[in-house]
Amino acid sequence: MFNNWLLRRLLALWVRYTVRPDDAVEPLRARNNPVCYVLERRDVTDLAVLQNACVRHKLPRPQKRLTKESRDLLSYFYLTRPLGFWLIPARSTVTASMSFTNVVQIFCEG
C-alpha cells in the first residue's frame, strides 16, 4: 500500500490528466449505482493516475470493492491481459476478462 501511495505522489508531480467529456464528473458523483473503471491494459501507473483523479474529483476510488457483496471484485478491471512468462502485453487483441464477466452478471441479476 505504501508503494502505491509513493507512486501516486511522484506521478502527481509531473503527470497531468484530462477528464473527458468535461461534464462527466458530476453525473458520476450523483449516481447511486457503483462506478466501474475500465483500463485498457494492466499498468500500475495508469491505475495510480486514475486513483489520483478519483481523489481529486471526489469519486469512488478504483481499489474499493464494486459492491458490498463482492469480496474479490474491485471497481476496476483491465481489457487486456499480459501473455507469457515476461508478461508481454496483448497488443493486437482485446479480451474480456473474468472480472468483466462478473460485473455483467452482478448487474444483470440485481
Low-confidence stretches at least 5 residues in length (pLDDT < 50)?
none
Q: Count the domains.
A: 1
In helices, the fraction of residues equals: 40-55%
What is the terminal-to-terminal distance?
A: 32 Å
Proportion of beta-strand residues: 5-15%
Number of helices: 4
If strands are numbered along the chain, what order do they take across the biggest sheet?
1-2
The oligomeric state of the chains shown is: single chain
Tell me, what's the shape?
Answer: globular
What does the largest sheet look like? 2 strands, parallel
Let me know the average pLDDT: 78
- Please identify the structural class as seen in this structure: mainly alpha
User: In sequence order, what are the helices and strands, one letter per element?
Assistant: HHEHEH
| CA gyration radius, whole angstroms | 15 Å
Number of strands: 2
Question: What does this entry show, briefly?
Answer:
By secondary structure, the protein is mostly helical. It is built from 4 helices and 2 strands, in the order H-H-E-H-E-H.
How would you describe what is shown here?
This protein has 110 residues and is mainly α. It has one domain (2-109). 40% of the residues lie in helices and 5% in strands. It has four helices and two strands, in the order ααβαβα. The protein has helices at 2-14, 25-30, 44-56, 98-109, and strands spanning 37-39, 76-78. A two-stranded parallel ribbon has the order 1-2. Strand 1, helix 3 and strand 2 (76-78) form a beta-alpha-beta unit. Helix 1 (2-14) packs across helix 3 (44-56). It is globular and about 40 Å long. The N and C termini lie far apart (32 Å). The mean pLDDT is 78.
